[in-house]
């Protein structure tokens, strides 16, 4: 079993920044990959950023240059630094971990960007 707990969401004005955190209950190196997804009202869940065990990073085109995914292996914590936020970034953000070919999800954290 894997528990993921997100934090750091909130209300911010357009152009502002937030940092999301995701604390995992297991060592990061057990995970094939960790990801951040988001889901806006009335829309499908979409992949925002990912980091496989190798440490390379990938981003959705909509957030490239604005968001940064990182991890603190010693703390088993995944981060998403979000800068230059836009109203269209408003969504519930979910942490995801792939472990033995299964996906585990956090409870989500709301990010609201006011324009």
Annotation keywords:
115 residues, mainly beta, seven-stranded mixed β-sheet, four-stranded antiparallel β-sheet
Give the % helix. under 10%
Distance between the termini: 40 Å
Q: Structural class of the secondary structure composition?
A: mainly beta
Low-confidence stretches: none
Please state roughly what percent of the residues sit in beta strands, choosing from under 5%, 5-15%, 15-25%, 25-35%, 35-45% or over 45%.
Answer: over 45%
Mean pLDDT: 96
Task: Name the shape in a single word.
Answer: globular
Specify Rg, calculated over alpha carbons. Answer: 13 Å
What is the oligomer described by this structure?
single chain
Alpha plus pi helix count: 0
Biggest beta sheet summary = 7 strands, mixed
Number of strands: 11
Order of helices and strands: EEEEEEEEEEE
Secondary structure topology:
Layout: E1 4-7, E2 10-13, E3 18-24, E4 33-39, E5 46-52, E6 58-59, E7 67-72, E8 77-82, E9 91-99, E10 102-105, E11 109-114
């Amino acid at each position: 079993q894997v528990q993921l707990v997100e934090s750091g969401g909130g209300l911010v004005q357009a152009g502002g920044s937030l940092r999301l955190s995701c604390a995992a209950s297991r060592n990061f190196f057990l995970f094939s990959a960790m990801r951040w997804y988001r889901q806006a009202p009335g829309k499908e869940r979409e992949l925002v950023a990912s980091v496989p065990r190798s440490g390379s990073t990938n981003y959705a085109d909509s957030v490239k240059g604005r968001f940064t995914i990182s991890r603190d292996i010693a703390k088993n914590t995944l981060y998403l630094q979000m800068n230059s936020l836009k109203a269209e970034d408003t969504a519930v953000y979910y942490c995801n971990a792939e472990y033995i070919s299964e996906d585990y999800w956090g409870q989500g954290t709301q990010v609201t960007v006011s324009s």
